[in-house]
Structures are given as structure tokens and as C-alpha cells.
Design goal:
Elements (H helix, E strand, L loop, with lengths): L1 E9 L5 H10 L8 E7 L3 E9 L22 E6 L5
Antiparallel strand pairs: 1-3, 1-4, 2-3
Length: about 80
């Protein structure tokens, strides 16, 4: 089974590039099948990691950045793949 973990944070205005660099520098203790990082307006950063694991597996996630860098707590979601088209 493939599980995708999504991590999304919103930087303090004007610090989006700093948050992006911080997220990209975070090493996970295990290597996912795939990892991709995105940015969006309003200084938002999204990291998606894909894992070959059961849905409820204990998987490493990108940590919380310091409170001074973000406007709110990180949002996290977990999804199970149902196939690719």
C-alpha cells in the first residue's frame, strides 16, 4: 500500500523563502519512496512524502518549524493511494 503524508505551513508574511528553505533542509530518519516540495501564494509551503507502508504505520514526518517562522500550527493529512490513472 502507498501512503502519502502531507505537511502544509504558512510563513509569517515576507518569510516564505525562509520557510521553504527550512522545509527542504529537514532530513527524515528514513527515506520515503518520493518527496516533493511546493510553494503557493501567501507564503505557503507544502511537503508531500510517499511511503510503502500500511495506512496507520508509524512514519517520520517533517517537524514543526519555530513559532516565529509560521502564522499558525502546521496542517497535516494522511492519504491512502487508490491507484493512478
Amino acid at each position: 500500500m502507498t501512503v502519502a503524508l502531507m505537511w502544509e505551513a504558512r510563513a509569517v508574511p515576507g518569510r516564505g523563502e525562509e520557510l521553504l528553505a527550512w522545509a527542504r533542509a529537514q532530513e527524515l530518519p528514513r527515506r520515503p519512496l518520493r518527496r516533493e516540495t511546493f510553494r503557493a501564494p501567501q507564503d505557503r509551503v507544502l511537503v508531500i512524502t510517499w511511503w510503502n507502508a500500511p495506512y496507520d504505520a508509524d512514519l517520520p514526518e517533517v517537524p514543526e518549524p519555530t513559532a516565529e517562522l509560521v502564522t499558525r500550527a502546521v496542517h497535516r493529512w494522511r492519504f491512502e493511494s487508490v491507484g493512478a490513472d
